[in-house]
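ok so I'm stuck.
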Amino acid sequence: MDKEGLAAQSYEQFRKKEYDRVAETLRRFKKSDDPKHLHNIALTQYYMSGCTEPYKFLEELQRIQNSVEEKADNPEASASSNNNASSEGDPAFEAPDTFLLAYNQAVIYYHLKKYGQSQNILDTLFQNIEPVDEYLAIQICFLLIDVHLLSRQTSRIPPVIAYLDKTLQAMTREKQDAKKEDDKANQKEENGRSSSSPPILPADFKYNLHLYKAKYYLTINDANNAKSELKNVESTTSSAPNPGLVLFLNAQLDYLRQDFNKSTKTLNSWQKDLGNSESPMYFNNLGCISFRQRKLNMASFHLVRALKENEKHVLSDTKSVHHYTTNKKREIMYNMGNQLLFSSNPELAFRSFQEAVPLYMKQPTIWLRLAECCIHTHQKKLKEAHSLQKNGLVKKATGVGKTRRIILPESDNDLKVTRQSTTSDDPQLGLVPSIAYGSTCLRNAMYLYNSQKFPTSLASPLTNLPNNAAPLPSTPSHNFPENSEQLYDAILLNAAYVSLVMNDPLVALSHCRELLARNTTDKCMYLANMYAAEALVSLGKADEAVQHLDPKNLGLGNSDSVNFSFPNSVWGDASCNPRHVLYVNLAVVHILKEELQEAYQKINQALSVGHSTPAVMMQVYLELRNGNADVALQLLKVIGKES
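replied:
not stuck anymore, here's the structure
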């Protein structure tokens, strides 16, 4: 049998998964250093091992790749085996036969969830895709879209989709032209087709293209186009339909539209037909839906169940390369982190996010969440410190009648907590939820955001992650950002807060000014001005601080109604009111400027909104400065009785 006959025979045996016979057929070839032949031997051995040695397969592919590159650098040695090489582009990808070698490397990296390495290979292939045969080119493009979706680089997907649309149009046109030709012309076309390229039906290609478009539109939160593409999927006949994926995408569409009941119903309709690998994703998505419905306990239940199902699936797997692909532990742990963070468990949320970091380490959102865990933990410690004494002004009261005495606090609890939060006792990089580590996380988030624009949702088509959820308690970044601009606003706001806690007002002021120069929300504008004023006060620039405390600059105006509020504070409910906080801060600035009358007026305005420890503390101070010791003492006695 000649070489072409052996190649056709080995290919047919491979399609039937008769790998032992494939190996025997390949051994009948004469010894050759042809990259395609060496690649087929490595691929056959990989499948004979049950796909359980992906790293060994990668090493073999890399060895073959190195030999190809050596030949590309030595034209005389490679002239006989590489006559069809292109004169432009990456030398490693000049010969069309090497594209399959590179593609399989990208596939293995994809299964190992090493999306950066896979993307580098696929990007080079796509840039030099013209000499590649049609079938392989389509597979390269589909895998590249998957990698871009998982890497959150959706801005790079439209050119790939445009190429696939163009290919589909050409394929459809060729099919129409083929119908007009006689049988002899069709036979000639079939004989000219490379045996290494399996035929692809236009209907199957169209079906998969609509699926990938739907995944893309769902990732960028375009519900209308996603719905249109899913309708196209349902109206397209395919020889290999994927009803499970279609169902999950429809459920995600309802999730995106916030029709959570319908999304749950869609998922439940497929529950009986779920496989071991789909069960974790099913419970994960139910957890995401419950989370968006503010049912945090129910969300926790579903996510814990998802982790159990995932562990069961992992243990039942044969440790093949698909073990890495179908293991969704890190995706589920990210969702669990969000649920714990919103349930006021920042320490546990921090651990969950740390589990997800290896998968999402190049995404700014994961670092923002870690920083928020650090901020929550710091504020939780502040609250615990204040709970040790019922009142911030009075430690305790002793005696009765004329012997009654009020004992003031001996130290500043806030300062103690801040010192503890800005240091770490962990010898290994300080991976504890401290303000210092939070500052590092925010620098990572800022660098990643500035390096490349990322969408904010870390959702994948099958394991939806919640976004745009409820306000976080006591965190400057109060919402899941809806777009990349809000994501950066949240990073800047958190960075300013952390810088103030770490006693670095210059850096805090820089972040605030950058945020104020952007078109942001009223709440972000308010907080940025407040943080800027505090930074300027720390720098001894009270006059400049007043400008940031102008109600017009804070989105408050002259109306008493405010379209935003803040979560509970350690200082009481009144300190959650934006106007109350504004008046107290204005009083501080006026005191620093020795404008006691104006300060007294602002404190009265603050107290008219509500009572808080800082406001009363300021009132006592002003009474003492005005020489009204009796009034100040009376205020302290009232506070002492309340304590």
